[in-house]
């Protein structure tokens, strides 16, 4: 086994050169060579000296590179953490998710007639006339339900119930 490992050791500089030429990245090349050497040692029992060990190692390295390239195409390229501009140990801000969850809970507490009107107009972006027709009510009734629903939501989410609406009449 030590002759096998000695032979592998003599191939390392050539493997590194080839890996750097394939990847054009020193760190990725070193990882590729390391993966190749680990696999070669793990699979040493499978090596049948039909040819030189060097050819076997280069074939293994090339296959690992091709498999990695295929995997990268499926998953997309890796983004180095250095370029992201944030500390990975710091959790991302969650206020948007909390606000949405709070709003969803508030909508669930609305009376059914107000919730139905609000969801048709706001969520489905339906014109008032269409929403009123679906609910089987006059447009004026729809608008008053929307007004009450919006005021209730502003109160439940800590907003001013008298604040002006942001939505325009359809």
TrEMBL record:
Record Pfam families: PhyR_sigma2, Sigma70_r4_2
TM helices/strands, residue ranges: none
Keyword Transcription among UniProt keywords: yes
Domain RNA polymerase sigma factor 70 region 4 type: start-end pairs: 101-153
GO biological process, one term: DNA-templated transcription initiation
Gene Ontology MF term list: DNA binding; sigma factor activity
Annotated ranges, domain PhyR sigma2: 8-61
Keywords: Sigma factor, Transcription, Transcription regulation
Protein species of origin: Paradevosia shaoguanensis
UniProt KW Electron transport keyword: no
Gene3D superfamilies linked: 1.10.1740.10, Winged helix-like DNA-binding domain superfamily/Winged helix DNA-binding domain
Full protein name: Sigma-70 family RNA polymerase sigma factor
Protein family per UniProt: Belongs to the sigma-70 factor family. ECF subfamily.
Signal sequence annotation: none
């Amino acid at each position: 086994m030590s002759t096998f490992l000695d032979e592998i050791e003599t191939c390392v500089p050539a493997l590194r050169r080839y890996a750097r030429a394939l990847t054009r990245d020193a760190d990725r090349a070193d990882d590729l060579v390391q993966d190749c050497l680990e696999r070669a040692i793990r699979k040493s029992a499978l090596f049948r000296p039909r040819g030189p060990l060097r050819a076997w190692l280069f074939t293994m390295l090339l296959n690992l590179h091709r498999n990695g390239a295929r995997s990268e195409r499926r998953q997309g390229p890796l983004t180095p953490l250095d370029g992201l501009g944030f500390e990975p140990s710091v959790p991302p801000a969650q206020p948007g998710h909390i606000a949405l969850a709070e709003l969803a809970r508030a909508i669930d507490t609305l009376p059914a007639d107000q919730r139905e009107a609000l969801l048709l107009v706001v969520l489905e972006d339906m014109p008032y006339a269409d929403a009123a027709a679906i609910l089987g009510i006059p447009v004026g009734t729809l608008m008053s339900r929307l007004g009450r629903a919006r005021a209730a939501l502003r109160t439940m989410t800590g907003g001013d119930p008298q604040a002006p609406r942001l939505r325009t009449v359809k």
